[in-house]
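Priority: medium. Attachment 1 of 2:
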């Protein structure tokens, strides 16, 4: 498709439909997926599992044990969540990498919590990616 469609002459119907698809439909679909992810995470909160409370408790546990570097890595991962689907995947990959890198420094409870958080988010993203 010619990016300078309006400068190169009359656009065909296919060109216009492709523009509509790229500039209107695709962003709406991404926004829909991001909202679905937030809804599922909120639903888990109502079921007794609050994702961010568990995450913050994990970080606080690390700080109490003076594992400031690991706590900071986890918090930096959290900053990747920006409300888009891509942000959630970036957070998941970065958080998983930080957990795997520092797994030997985590207590068994911290390790279990971290892996539960990763599993929960993977499941949520997988479900929402298939809808």
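Attachment 2 of 2:
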């Amino acid at each position: 498709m010619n990016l300078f469609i309006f400068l190169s002459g009359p656009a065909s119907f296919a060109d216009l439909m492709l523009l509509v698809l790229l500039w209107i439909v695709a962003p709406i679909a991404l926004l829909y997926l991001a909202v679905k992810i937030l809804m599922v995470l909120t639903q888990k909160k109502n079921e007794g599992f609050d994702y961010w409370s568990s995450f913050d408790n994990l970080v606080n546990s690390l700080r109490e044990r003076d594992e400031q570097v690991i706590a900071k890595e986890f918090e930096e991962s959290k900053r990747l969540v920006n409300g888009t689907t891509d942000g959630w995947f970036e957070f998941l990959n970065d958080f998983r990498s930080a957990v795997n890198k520092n797994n030997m420094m985590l207590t068994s409870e911290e390790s279990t919590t971290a892996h539960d958080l990763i599993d929960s988010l993977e499941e949520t993203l997988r479900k929402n990616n298939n809808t």
